[in-house]
Amino acid sequence: MKLYHGSNMIVQRPELIVQNRFLDFGFGFYTTTNKMQAVSFANKVIKRRKNGKPIVNIYDFDEKKASENLQVLKFDFANEAWLDFVSMNRAGEYKSKQYDIIIGAVADDDIYRIFALYTEGLLTKEQTLENLKIKNLYDQVVFTTDKALKYLIFRGTIGEVE
């Protein structure tokens, strides 16, 4: 499987870097199978950090081999378990089983409003999931351990994307 990581630099050897905010799947190195999502993220990194140029790093990943050797959590679609997991991570409250790799839909800017209404208690879980069904949800593959990062093989970049 081909994965992309949007950044402001070339990342030949991904590392786990402490983050200053709570993300969908918690701490980790975030990738996606969607090239345009990675381009969008690279541009957001540039705006946030105010340095570098948008770069999309490309990796090969053998999901089958990783699944045989690592603890992998996979959400095939945005269901109740996914919503609970993302909610707990975004609130910094997830304390259950740790996984090496987590795969599932990304709660990106397009669905953030729906997600915010849910976390504020203005939408029920059922209403939230119903609203998510009509959205085009992209995926994310998150590597949360150094052991998992060894399954990423750097293949190059798409430099200076806009």
- Approximate strand percentage: 15-25%
Nearest-integer average pLDDT: 88
H/I helix tally:
6
Count the beta strands.
Answer: 7
Most strands sheet: 4 strands, mixed
SSE order, as H and E? EEHEHEHEHHEHE
Distance between the termini: 24 Å
Sequence stretches where pLDDT stays below 50 over 5 or more residues:
none
Taking all Cα atoms into account, the compactness measure Rg is 16 Å
- Structural class designation: alpha+beta
Strand order of the largest sheet: 2-6-5-4
Q: Per the principal axes of the C-alpha atoms, what is the gross shape?
A: globular
Helix content: 25-40%
SSE order and pairing:
Elements: E1 2-7, E2 29-31, H1 35-49, E3 55-61, H2 63-69, E4 72-74, H3 80-90, E5 101-105, H4 109-119, H5 125-133, E6 139-143, H6 146-149, E7 152-158
Parallel strand pairs: 4-5
Antiparallel strand pairs: 1-3, 2-6, 3-7, 5-6
Helix pairs in contact: 4-5
Overview of the molecule:
This protein has 162 residues and is an alpha+beta fold. The protein is built from six helices and seven strands. The strands form two sheets. Strands 2-6-5-4 form a four-stranded mixed β-sheet. A three-stranded antiparallel β-sheet has the order 1-3-7. Strand 4, helix 3 and strand 5 form a beta-alpha-beta unit. It is globular, with a radius of gyration of 16 Å. The chain starts with a strand and ends with a strand. The model has no long low-confidence stretch (mean pLDDT 88).
